[in-house]
Amino acid sequence: MKKNQIIATIITAVMTITAATTTAMTAFAGSATGTTAAFTEYDLEGLDPNMAETKPTLALSRIELPINVAQENPVQAIELTVTGANRKYATTGLHIGYDERLTAVADEYGDIAEIGPAGAKLMRDQKASSRNDFFLTTGAASDHGKDGVLWTMNFQLPENIEVGDEFPIEILYRNIDGTSDLFSSSRDDDASKLMQAWVFTNGIEQGYIRITEAEIEEEELPEEPIIEEEPIVEEPEEELMLGDVNGDETINATDSSCILSTYALFQTGQDVELTPAQMKAADINRDGRVDAKDATDALRYYSYLSTGGTLEFMDFLAQ
Ligand SMILES: [Ca+2]
Ligand SMILES: [Ca+2]
Hints:
alpha+beta, binds calcium ion
């Protein structure tokens, strides 16, 4: 194939990807990937998502891939893109399920997903489950989550692909005894609850890799490596101050990272590494669960103290 022809076909392929339908749907309209066991419909608890002022969409890439290109490039990048929530969110917890014929490709740190530009200002964590799904979470003291690519993840196609094969990748919703997936602002107020209700009932566009007739060639873009911060869990103590998860008598980003990591472990059905006393200290908003909202509260307070704030933690939370 001549160079001009190749360029023309690349353009066609790119247009096919971006022209994919934009029908929004619920996070659980019957799982296409079969990873249904732990997942559920979103419980609106009386909220009307249409009342939301912020109505974001979370979309996964929809890739139409000629079979010869797929055979040469069996690892494909799927992006999770946020629109309509620029600077309106911080706290997220999202499950990604994928077709069991796909293999999620981990980097040297064991991470499947890399944070994208939309999440560059957010702290984050992730965990793979023992099934064909994994969990991605973010938090921040302020709503520094932006529109754009929040996460990128790589999946390897199987060897025996055929034209017409479709490999779904989807955002799933999990809620076990109230510890749930999240998409909220750092304040977690009424507007945030409506935004989250919108996302999980109307704001999801599921993704796929679809194998099409042979022809074109496509270039892979190199990915920037991301340096992940390591959550530190120190020796537990008997009685801990609320928010001081590692027991060093201050509340700072280390506590916040511990909380986020614990949430990620729990959301992937893995053993939580904190002691009961640490769990109690980690449940900052005292709603009986340890999740990204608590991590965000700890980080907010740390930022507040670090910029001259003088209120005690309890008084700060009560503001
Ligand atoms: Ca601490
Ligand atoms: Ca909590």
